[in-house]
């Protein structure tokens, strides 16, 4: 029944797509992006029913006044902004290091092994093994997060890269000899 399970996410997306035209835009979108007060109030009444929304409207007007001088940027504008380059390069470095460190390979090899293990177990034990793997991954995430917060990302990245470089030099030396 795995095909039914996989099609369930498509069914949920289809239901969302069908109901999307009947849902109103958010009131802050009308006021802050479009500058349309009437549609903002109309969306408030449609979302929250009849009532007095002057406090919320005043808060949005204050936010509009604060953000009046700022330009709304799309993705290309953000990428063209030089002040974003250090953050963008750091993010790309972290993503590349996550992909190259071997965790993806561990996941790709773990799940076929887990499937093989589950086929040889009794059917009554299979759910417990799946839950055990999920709990061990959760514990690993919590443990790794605490290590990262304790030592800091930069120290761990430098240490990991230096260790990988050392191992590669040792492997290359071994291959040459």
TrEMBL record:
Transmembrane segments: 84-106, 127-149, 155-171
Molecular function terms, GO-annotated: D-glucose transmembrane transporter activity
Signal peptide span: 1-17
Subcellular localization, as worded in the UniProt entry: Membrane
Cross-referenced InterPro entries: GLUT (IPR045263), MFS_sugar_transport-like (IPR005828), MFS_trans_sf (IPR036259)
GO CC term (a single one): plasma membrane
UniProt-listed Gene3D superfamilies: MFS general substrate transporter like domains
Membrane topology field: Multi-pass membrane protein
Domain of life: Eukaryota
UniProt main location, coarse: membrane
One GO term (biological process): dehydroascorbic acid transport
Keywords of the record: Membrane, Signal, Transmembrane, Transmembrane helix
Alphabetized PANTHER family for the sequence: MAJOR FACILITATOR SUPERFAMILY (MFS) PROFILE DOMAIN-CONTAINING PROTEIN (PTHR23503:SF54), SOLUTE CARRIER FAMILY 2 (PTHR23503)
The protein's name in its UniProt record: GTR7 protein
């Amino acid at each position: 029944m795995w095909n039914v399970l996989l099609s369930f996410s498509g069914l949920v997306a289809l239901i969302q797509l069908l109901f999307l035209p009947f849902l109103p835009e958010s009131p802050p979108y009308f006021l802050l992006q479009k500058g349309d007060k009437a549609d903002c109030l109309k969306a408030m009444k449609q979302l929250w029913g009849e009532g007095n929304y002057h406090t919320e409207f005043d808060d949005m007007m204050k936010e509009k006044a604060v953000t009046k001088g700022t330009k709304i940027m799309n993705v290309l504008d953000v990428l063209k902004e030089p002040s974003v380059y250090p953050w963008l390069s750091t993010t790309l470095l972290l993503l590349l290091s996550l992909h190259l460190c071997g965790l993806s390979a561990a996941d790709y090899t773990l799940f076929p092994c887990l499937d093989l293990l589950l086929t040889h177990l009794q059917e009554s034990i299979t759910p417990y093994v799946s839950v055990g793997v999920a709990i061990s991954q959760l514990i690993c995430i919590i443990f790794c997060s605490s290590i990262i917060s304790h030592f800091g990302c930069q120290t761990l990245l430098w240490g990991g890269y230096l260790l990988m470089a050392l191992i590669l030099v040792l492997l290359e030396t071994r291959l040459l000899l």
